[in-house]
Specification:
Radius of gyration: 16 Å
Distance between the termini: 41 Å
Shape: elongated
Number of strands: 2
Structural class: mainly alpha
Order of helices and strands: HHHHEEH
Length: 121
């Protein structure tokens, strides 16, 4: 196996198992090449898309890359605020004015997104 893609199935299973057990999303393992910051950023982005929340680091130069990859973007924060506000006004499953469906899982993700941003501020 070459590259990270061969581990996608295993990594996805870890994420799903954690969520099924009611645990927070797991953190990604280390990126062993401490000089390959572009590769680290790409791997973090892919890990985040798989459902990981954070990553272990083995060198201080990796920390800013990991932090940027896993903190919510401004757009994600705006969407989360919209979802939480809608859920406060009308609890339960609903469709937002832009057509997106919102249920308890989507609201929980939005709340977690806002909490992540709050920890940094």
């Amino acid at each position: 196996m070459r590259g990270d893609a061969g581990l996608d199935w295993c990594r996805s299973r870890v994420v799903v198992a954690a969520r099924a057990a009611g645990l927070v999303p797991p953190t990604q393992s280390v990126h062993a090449d401490t000089r390959d910051l572009e590769g680290l950023a790409a791997s973090c982005s892919h890990g985040r898309a798989l459902g990981f929340l954070g990553r272990a680091a083995i060198h201080p130069r990796q920390l800013p890359i990991i932090e940027r990859a896993y903190l919510p973007t401004e757009r994600e924060l705006e969407e989360a605020e919209t979802i939480v506000k809608a859920a406060t006004v009308q609890p339960g499953a609903q469709a937002l004015p832009d057509g997106r469906f919102v249920d308890a899982a989507v609201v929980a993700l939005a709340q977690r997104t806002l909490a992540l941003a709050g920890r940094r501020r």
